Amino acid sequence: MKVGLNYYYSASRNSSLEEARLENAVGSGYAFGYYDSSRSFVELARTDVTRLSMRRIGASGIGVYNTASGELIYKTDVTNVSKMLGILPLCEEGDAVTWFAQNKYYGGFEYLVLGAGNITVINVVDIEKYVMGVCAMEMNESWPIEALKAQAVAARTYVQKNMMNTIYFTRCGFDVTNDTYCQAYRGCASVGSNINEAVNATANQYLCYNGRFVDALYSSSDGGATEDNINVNGNNNHPYLKGVLDIYEASTDSINFMSKWTVKYSAAEIADKLRMSSPVAEISTELSEMGNVIKMEITGDDGSRKVIEKGACRTALGLHSIRFSVEKDEAGNFIFSGSGWGHSLGMSQYGAYGMAKHYNKTYKDILGFYYSEVGLSFGTN
User: Fold this and answer.
1) Burial of 364 (0-12, 13-18, 19+ CB in 10 A)
2) 367 class by beta-carbon count within 10 Å (0-12 exposed, 13-18 middle, 19+ buried)
3) How far, in Å, CA of 2 to CA of 120, rounded?
4) Helices 349-359 and 145-163, axial angle in degrees (round to 10)
5) What is the dihedral of CA 294, 300, 304, 309, to 10 degrees?
6) Distances in whole angstroms, Cα of residue 358 to Cα of each of 224, 247, 362
7) Is the CB of residue 205 less than 8 Å from the CB of residue 295?
8) CA-CA distance, 9 to 116, in Å (whole number)?
9) pTM
10) How many Cα neighbours within 13 Å face the side chain of 93?
C-alpha cells in the first residue's frame, strides 16, 4: 500500500517538502527505479550511499544527492503518478528500516512533484507493517494484548476500506495519508514485541457487515456510551455503528485523563465562535437515548437563535465529546462538564483496554461489543 507522508493535495493541505532526506538504518544503500502497476519495484540503478537528499530540479524533475558530499547520484522526471521516482532501501537480511523525518519506516519510498507543491513523499509498505505503525500511534505498547489485537483489526479494516475508494487520493499517487484525514502513522519506531504479536496474531483479519468491509471508526474514549452514526454524521450508511452503553470504560478512569473534563466559555466567546449577533443568554440541549448531546439550541441576548445538531455539537465549540452537560454560572459564563474524547463512534480505545484488562475479554468480544452485527473475514496476501 502507499501512504502519503508529506504531500500536496491542495493549497490548504500542503505539507510537501523542498528537500526530503533518507538514511538507511541498515547501511546497505538503495536501489533506484519505479513501482509498476502491480506495485512491484523495477530497479534501474543502485548506490551504496546510505544517506540521500532529494531535491526538485526544474519544473518537474527530482535529483537524488549524496547528503554528505552534495554529489548528484540520480535524476528523473516525476510528473506522472503512474511512474514516480522509487527508492528502495537495500538490506542483507530481514526487513530494511529507513530514517525519514526523524522516524523509522519499513518498505520503500516514492517521490513526485504535484501542482504548486514541492516534493510529495510516499511510503510504499506492506499493509501489516503499516498496521503495526498505526497501532503504535493509537495505543501504548504496554496495553493489554487483546486490546492491541482489537486495534489492529480495526485499523486494518479501516485502511482496507479506504484503499478500495482510492479515487480521493488517486491524483496524488497514494492510497491514504498519515494524518487525521485517515489514520495516524509515523512508521515503526515505537513498534515493540506486543504490537508485533497483536498484528501477527490477527493478520489478514477484517471486520465485515453483510460481506463488506466496515468503516471501522474508533476514538479514544466514549465517556460512558457510544452513539448511532445517524446522530453524529446524519446518515444510515453505517448500520453497524450503533450506540451502546459502555459499562467497561469507567474501569480505566484512573489512567484516562479525559474521563472527566470541563470547558468554560464566556457568553461573548460562544457568540464569537458561532458568529452570533449578540452574547449568548441561554443554551438548551437535546439528548439521544444513549445520553449524548445531539442537538443544542443557543439563544442570544437580542433573541437571535442558533441550532447545532449531530457531531457539530462537539466540533462547533471545540468540545472534547458529545457527552456533556452545560450550566450558566453567576458571572454569566457557560460551563460544559463532560466525559470522553472523540466522535463517539465505534470502538472506545480505553473501553477496549478496560474490557481486556479488567474483564478478561478477548479481541473478538471487544469488536463484537462496539460494532453491531459484524463478523471477521479472513483475507489473503
Assistant:
1) middle
2) buried
3) 12
4) 150
5) -10
6) 16, 11, 11
7) no
8) 10
9) 0.93
10) 0
Cα gap 44→86, rounded to integer Å: 10
Cell, residue 161: 476500506
Measured CA to CA in angstroms, residue 340 lies from 234, 246, 259, 261, 377 at distances of: 21, 11, 5, 8, 30
**pLDDT on residue 166:** 59
pLDDT at 93: 80
* Residue 141: CA count within 13 A, CB half-sphere: 11
Task: Tell me the average confidence (pLDDT) per consecutive run of 10 residues in the chain, 381 residues long.
Answer: 92 92 89 92 95 90 95 85 88 88 95 84 96 96 98 96 74 89 92 96 96 94 98 92 98 97 98 95 98 98 96 97 97 97 98 98 98 86 49
Beta-strand pair 347-348/218-219: parallel
Contact 135, 145 (CB under 8 A): no
CA dihedral of 154, 157, 158, 164, whole degrees rounded to 10 = 180
Alpha-carbon distance 93 to 107, whole Å?
14
- Cα 226 from chain centroid (whole Å): 19
The Cα 314–Cα 16 span in angstroms is 31
Structure-block grid coordinates of residue 168: 480521493
Cβ pair 340, 352 in contact under 8 A: no
Q: Which three cell numbers stand for residue 123?
A: 511510503
Q: d(Cα 57, Cα 113) in Å, to the nearest integer?
A: 10
Angstrom distance (rounded) from CA 191 to CA 103: 12
